[in-house]
Amino acid sequence: MSTSTETEVAADASPRRRPQAPRSGGFGNWLSQFDRKVTPYIYVSPFFLLFGLIGLFPLAYTFYVSMYDWDLLKGKGDFVGFDNFTNMLSNEMFWNSIGNTIAIFLMSSVPQILVALILAAILDQNLRAKSFWRMGVLLPYVVAPVAVALIFSSVFNEADGLANNLLNMVGIADQEWKHTDWQSWFAIATMVNWRWTGYNALILLAAMQAVPRDQYESAAIDGAGWLRRFVSITIPSIRPTVIFVIITSTIGGLQIFAEPRLFDVSNAGGIGGSDRQFQTTVLFLWEMAFFRRDFGRAAAVAWLLFLLILIFGVVNFMLSRSIASSGAGNRASRRAAKKKKYAPKEVVK
Amino acid sequence: MSFSRRRNILGVAAGATAFALLVAGCSSSDDKNDSPASSGAGSSSAAEPVTLTITTFGTMGYEDLYTEYMELNPHVTIEATNIDTGGNARTDTFTKIAAGGDGLTDIVGLEEGWLGAIMEVSDSFEDLRDYGIEDRKSDWVDWKYAQATDPSGRVIGYGTDIGPEGICYNGKLFEAAGLPSDREEVADLLEGDWAHYMEVGKQYQQATGKAWYDHSGFVWNAMVNQLDEGYYTADGALNVEGNADLEALWAILADGAASGLSAAQSPWDWNGGKSFVDGTFATFMCPGWMLGVVQSNTEAGGGDATTGWDFADVFPGGAANWGGSFLAVASNSKNKEEAAKLASWLTEPEQQVKQFNAAGTFPSTIAAQEELAANGEPNAFFNNAPVGQLLAGRAQGVVAQFKGPDDSLIQENVFGPAANALDRGELDGPAAWQQALDLLKELVG
Amino acid sequence: MTSTAPLVKRKRRRGMGIDRSPGFLTYGLLGAFVLGNAYPLWWSFVVGSGTNATRGESFPLIPGGNFISNMGKVLDAIPFWKALVNSLIVSGTITVSVVFFSTLAGYAFAKLRFKGRDGLMLFVVATMAVPTQLGIIPLFMLMRDFGWTGKLGAVIVPMLVTAFGVFFMRQYLVDVIPDELIEAARVDGANQFRTFINVAIPAARPAMAILALFTFMMAWTDFLWPMIVLNAQNPTIQTALANLQSGYYIDYSIVLTGAVMATIPLLILFVVAGRQLIAGIMQGAVKG
């Protein structure tokens, strides 16, 4: 199977090298060593260069600001060291926002990833009008924020919104979507899920498409059903991408900002509901900076959130590594061994 | 993938990167010369070409005025940026001040609600007395001029529009409750203080079982704005705890909510506008700019002019103002003279009339108000009320209240939740007041 | 028990459900899902073609007749074409740059061995964890000092390479390109760059298509930063459209018409990108 690659590479080989094993010693060898050792750094340097130029300054600046009593308009005040941090850590509204953030995160990311996996699996099949279905799941991303705000505000309207109407049909009383904690979390999680599920599904789909089909066939021959194939072949095969989705969903889910802001039409102060029922930490940070004009404390909140995200990220990373590899991985390798054992006989017959 | 396709991708990528760097360095705008004016050049006809930048928000109705000014002053080019909402404009302006002030446009639109905070850094903007604003002082209603004056006497803004308040009421609902529905009779009926307003409301409520106003928050804001001293004393001290005036008003508000006069609506939502149509409430606090909001929401709720909304020349407690903007000249501007000239011109009575016709923003200059009062068109949606005239009347007698740095924060994030608690019956008057005090301590200190 | 003929037949079918082609239930579920996704866009169109009153209806389904006239009003009210061109330039440039550099860096992190690789990769991921909302202030300071405020460069340059893109390509490429293939290329004398072009890029194509699509969408819909750093001389489509929403009387039918008009280029992109989302070429060659 590598013959095609060989021919292609041979055709592209530069004149100064013949398509053979590299000669030992001499300029050619040095060049090849240089090529192998240095080019990786060259390949990753655009990111780090740009980051160093443009991304690093805002990070450093925000950290610098968090060390001072810094009014947004009046500017830098006294040096206070970690006072802003300790102050925020003992601040009730900060913890309220953390609680809201984690709750909304769990309600959104967990179902989102599960549904995205299933959706990707469905899209991976030999559907008719593939492009249509695949792009159809991405439509929420392009809807204008003003439309999103109007629609979801209307759906979760406490007086006669769609959500309450549906609940009434099954005998459940009207829920106060905009005034109660967990109901507002649910509403916002719904907005987030609606927007991002298809997005994540396509990422998983891209990875699933690269899984060789014959693995499925062998498994099917061995009698594995749809679910077994999914759990034992698909998920382990796309494990790096699943990890990617889990990590980016964790990071994104803990930084939710746009949706609670859109949901809170009435409170110009951006406080996430009249009683901060759904104020996420980034919304709290925003309020702190632009409404309370306390830049120093807002910066401290940003870095505290960063720490929280790191913790969650690491935890999720460990979890996803163990889940995707245990059991399933072993089964796959056992099956592969079994296949090798039996294959010659089957083919001959 | 064939070899030529690979080369294609490389070529595209390399080209695009080069393009990106090229674009980063060039402006792709229609080129306008960015030459700084010679300072102190005065308005002679031999003036050097100058480009003035201006940031406004909402619809200020200046587009045609820019064209006119450029025709009158050929050496001036105006580059105008309009930001959609006041909230986003505040983010924009505050970001630029926080980044050092250098980056603000020559002329900046400032909203009344930001002034409290801006006054703490009022030297980000020029003292317009250096550009002759005192000569025009009498153009404006006195309180508007006073609003733009900082504690040390610097005047930092040319007043643009104001929001004199009247009462929007639903004539049909009033009739059904046995109350007069003619505009002038309603004005007589509601003339008085807030306690009287609540009394009439209770009459209405007993007759119909429905609420009198949409939610307590707007009523509270109007109450506070009318006082000589609001959340801050005239010399800038916080004035909430132990403030007998505020407590008395809060008691009236709480009584109203407890008596079912408040419809506990979510402002800016109002059940998708339906509350304006289905009789949920009968009166509404209406500054000039709110008329469009009422109309827009009534239409969204399925109503129209026949729904019955009208506008009465009355406001409980006397004259009141809600909202309004100013044009300020940034201290870092390189064209201060010319910018001040333009800002001054834009806020002259003649231009303010044109502005009103373009965008409905009610003028702050007396001559313009009189012009509208004399020739204003009746508003078909509000039962043909002569709104221009009525608003001009409502603009008289407003008190310029000192706004401290956290004024809008207190209004929105301290008393907003407390008023909401009253509306939802979660807390009674004294308990909600205590909640406000606790929030005040937390948010303002 | 099986002969070669049925094996070959089965090999032609793709996907996991190789025993059966997708049934009614599958299409039903998918259809419901896509309907739920698509309705808000359809709603925008329906209200855009109606009047302000349409926005208050609970479940509008039939479009009105005002779309064309509302389009005219949008074109009158804002510099639509200029903003559209600017957005195309900005989003297009960012997309090409992000995809190229992310694939390059992602490949290096995934397949090449070099000192500090894992640490640097972790660093890349960690940069995503910092909330960026406050960053607009120092970023504005930077752009102002470079003299780029008001120019498209201020919106393009900060986005030329993203941590998301690098991380995504790395995760995708780490399993999709088998090490044997790279070894084979090396044995045949190809240098790093040749290997990258001949081995990595073909394998990465579906991921590149996705990344291109997502990056374009993200750049296209960005609002806050362009609002602050650009001005009316150089609007993007989102900042230009926002002005339809201002003023004391907001006509939502016009606002939403503008929103729909701005979505059309994205929908076109969907069609193009959808076709690119097919399986990588190497899969059959590699593990068979």
Question: Would you write up a description of this structure?
Answer:
The complex is a heterotrimer of chains A (349), B (445) and C (288). With 349 residues, chain A is an all-alpha fold. Chain A has two domains: 42 residues, no CATH class; 266 residues, MetI-like fold (Orthogonal Bundle). In chain A, strands 1-2 form a two-stranded antiparallel ribbon. In chain A, helix 4 runs antiparallel to helix 11, helix 11 packs antiparallel against helix 14 and helix 13 packs antiparallel against helix 14. The two termini of chain A are 24 Å apart. In chain B, strands 1, 2, 3, 4, 5, 6, 7 and 8 form an eight-stranded mixed beta sheet that branches. In chain B, helix 8 packs parallel to helix 10. Chain B starts with a helix and ends with a helix. The N terminus of chain B is likely disordered. With 288 residues, chain C is mainly α. The chains are: A mainly alpha (349), B alpha+beta (445), C mainly alpha (288). Chains in contact: A-B, A-C, B-C. At the A-C interface, helix 1, helix 2, helix 4, helix 5 and helix 6 of A face helix 1, helix 2, helix 4, helix 5 and helix 6 of C.
